[in-house]
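TASK: fixed-backbone design
INPUT:
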């Protein structure tokens, strides 16, 4: 009887384990080039041991795609499982009314009893409204400043509010993901972890930069460091899953949102602001903002040890829309015909052989494309290209005129698909000069007319940051009487960015400076909930020419709290002696005489 009881107990336990709904984790990276993971085997300057191990435990999809070459539409697509063109989220500039009406993966999985969490970059509306889209736990960190959250890294639940963890944002996201797992370990969960990396601003701390010594473009070093920080986070997540005995029964996706922005030249510009983000797309052609392979083919890993054999290299096309369909199937929910992806599990287990019977289709503003098996048709800028991606993944040989029947078949299928979109058609806007230049360079072999290296010469590395202050469009040098600012261009004002300090309104700024030729001095600001610097949020004063130190004072009509300022200076050179920010009893002074001192 004891033997029979033991056998029954083992059987019951096994049955319960088999019935347990798998956890799902979607890790989404930002402006991350297709070859920039170690398992791709393209570049040897990477250090991604945890991602390589994740690939070994499951599947490396060599033809993994995003649904758009830009942040907002690709995120709208992956979270709904539907082509974002169907509900009007064409690009970053379009409104989100359509997305707000759609069900997300989180909303669907909650019906199956899943706990849901969002960590990192959102970019789909106000971050303090993420819970409106099915996410109960939120830690929306995407920069080194306070973020909206519903829980603390210690695990404590809080009302949605801003928290400041004083951590590098990628490390904070990894910690928040681990905390989420701890909070919900007994029950099935869905976690959407969206790292803001290696997207600009490039801001890796020395902890990660020091892993990549030697000669290389500084922007490449920054990208490698930020990718390494994400890799550490993946290692932490897997370790926590194993500690909770959840690893085998967790489906992990690791996917990029689009290709890297190269700006054609991959210019190693000073600072970490706009421009090349240091990531690479080669040997894929093109970059972010294009429907070439370099713009939409992305890192794509999948791991589900309980069912999916490891050490797989899957060569058939898959894309981010498959995440939703796969997650719903794992949760035991009925198949949704409105979704545009498929459940990948049968193909990864070998239950279904060969490639899924479907075509992948894209439209992004003035460009459209379709992939059917090895064939890809690309349209844009009044041009057409046909590529055989099996023999020519780098899209160098246009077969449009040698394979006219294939081109016509794909053209007809693409046109039929586009007629179902909102709005309908193969494009929704005319081509821009920028896109024409990209197509000319990457697809037609024309040399670009202007190099950014000629427009903005490389800034010496030493004075890029002094005492936490960062300069743009200029250089700065510490002198005994203050900080000497030298513009890089005669037509563009340099500006300083101070260390972030939160201030409530109203705010006054006192600036002590001297300059020989006078000019405009300005302050702009971004309130805590704003993503960009609005045009109207800037105060400009004229500064008279004088070699003597003088005081310039600003009153800023700020409506709410802010922690991000820009101090614009004359294009003819300036020496900054002291800056004071004041709001009520909160005062912060930086004295630049003889070295930076915060007072």
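OUTPUT:
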């Amino acid at each position: 009887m004891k033997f029979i009881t033991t056998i029954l107990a083992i059987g019951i336990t096994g049955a319960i384990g088999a019935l347990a709904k798998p956890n799902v984790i979607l890790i989404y990276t930002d402006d991350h080039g297709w070859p920039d993971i170690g398992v791709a085997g393209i570049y040897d300057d990477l250090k991604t041991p945890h991602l390589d191990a994740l690939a070994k435990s499951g599947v490396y999809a060599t033809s993994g795609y995003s649904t758009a070459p830009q942040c907002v539409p690709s995120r709208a697509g992956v979270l709904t499982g539907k082509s974002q063109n169907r509900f009007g989220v064409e690009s970053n500039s379009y409104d989100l009314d359509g997305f707000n009406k759609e069900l997300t993966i989180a909303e669907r999985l909650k019906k199956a009893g899943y706990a849901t969490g969002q960590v990192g970059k959102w970019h789909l509306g106000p971050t303090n409204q993420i819970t409106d889209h099915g996410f109960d736990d939120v830690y929306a960190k995407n920069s080194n400043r306070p973020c909206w959250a519903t829980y603390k890294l210690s695990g404590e639940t809080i009302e949605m509010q801003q928290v400041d963890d004083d951590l590098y944002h990628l490390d904070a996201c990894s910690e928040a993901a681990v905390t989420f797992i701890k909070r919900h370990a007994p029950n099935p969960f869905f976690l959407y972890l969206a790292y803001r990396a290696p997207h600009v601003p490039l801001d890796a701390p020395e902890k990660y930069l020091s892993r990549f010594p030697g000669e290389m473009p500084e922007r490449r070093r920054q990208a490698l460091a930020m990718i390494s920080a994400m890799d550490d986070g993946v290692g932490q997540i897997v370790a926590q899953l194993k500690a909770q005995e959840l690893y085998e029964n967790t489906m992990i996706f690791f996917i990029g949102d689009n290709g890297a922005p190269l700006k054609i030249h991959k210019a190693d510009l000073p600072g970490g602001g706009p421009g090349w983000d240091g990531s690479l797309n080669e040997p894929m052609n093109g970059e972010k903002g294009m429907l070439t392979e370099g713009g939409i083919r992305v890192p794509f890993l999948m791991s589900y040890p309980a069912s999916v054999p490891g050490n797989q290299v899957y060569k058939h096309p898959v894309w981010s829309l498959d995440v939703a369909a796969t997650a719903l199937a794992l949760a035991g929910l009925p198949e949704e015909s409105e979704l545009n992806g498929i459940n990948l599990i049968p193909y990864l287990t070998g239950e279904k052989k060969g490639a899924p019977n479907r075509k992948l289709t894209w439209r992004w503003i003035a460009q459209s494309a379709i992939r059917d098996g090895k064939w890809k048709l690309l349209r844009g800028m009044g041009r057409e290209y046909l590529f055989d991606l099996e023999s020519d993944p780098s899209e160098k040989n246009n077969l449009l005129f040698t394979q006219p029947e294939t081109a016509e078949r794909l053209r007809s299928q693409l046109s039929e698909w586009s007629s179902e979109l909102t709005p309908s058609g193969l494009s929704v806007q005319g081509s821009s000069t920028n896109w024409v230049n990209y197509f000319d360079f990457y697809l037609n072999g024309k040399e670009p007319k202007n190099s950014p290296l000629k427009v903005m010469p490389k800034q010496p590395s030493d004075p890029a940051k002094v005492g936490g202050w960062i300069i743009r469009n200029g250089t700065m040098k510490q002198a005994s009487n203050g900080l000497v600012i030298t513009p890089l261009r005669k037509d563009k004002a340099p500006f300083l960015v101070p260390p972030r300090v939160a201030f409530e309104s109203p705010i006054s700024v006192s600036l002590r400076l001297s300059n020989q030729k006078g000019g405009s001095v300005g302050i702009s600001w971004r309130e805590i909930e704003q993503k960009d610097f609005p045009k109207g949020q800037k105060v400009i004063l004229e500064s008279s020419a004088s070699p003597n130190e003088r005081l310039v004072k600003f009153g800023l009509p700020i409506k709410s709290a802010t922690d991000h300022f820009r101090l614009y200076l004359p294009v003819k050179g300036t020496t900054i002696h002291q800056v004071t920010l004041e709001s009520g009893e909160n005062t912060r002074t930086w004295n630049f005489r003889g070295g930076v001192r915060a007072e």
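COMMENT: The CA atoms of residues 17 and 249 lie 9 Å apart.
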